[in-house]
Design brief:
Blueprint: E1 7-13, H1 38-47, E2 50-58, E3 71-78
Antiparallel strand pairs: 1-3, 2-3
Length: about 80
């Protein structure tokens, strides 16, 4: 359990990384069909009474021209008393 205003930082595979295979720019799967969308993650945090401070979309260091980000990093704060 987090205290009010406590921070939460987590990283998950970026939802778009599930759409493409490697660096192939052709979509292989529908966005959101195998992983939660960014909207679904955002809504889940809001429903749990969190406010999102920062979202970073990271690309792999070894693939600077990657078609999609590989990782989504989120920092949120617990609201309320």
């Amino acid at each position: 359990m987090l205290r009010p205003e406590a921070g939460l930082v987590f990283a998950v595979p970026h939802p778009m990384s599930a759409v493409f295979d490697n660096n192939d720019p052709t979509a292989r799967r529908q966005y959101g069909s195998t992983t939660p969308t960014i909207g679904e993650l955002t809504m889940a945090l809001q429903r749990a009474n969190f406010s999102i401070d920062v979202m970073h979309e990271l690309t792999p260091l070894h693939q600077p021209r990657a078609v999609a980000p590989s990782t989504l990093v989120v920092r949120a704060r617990k609201l309320g008393s």
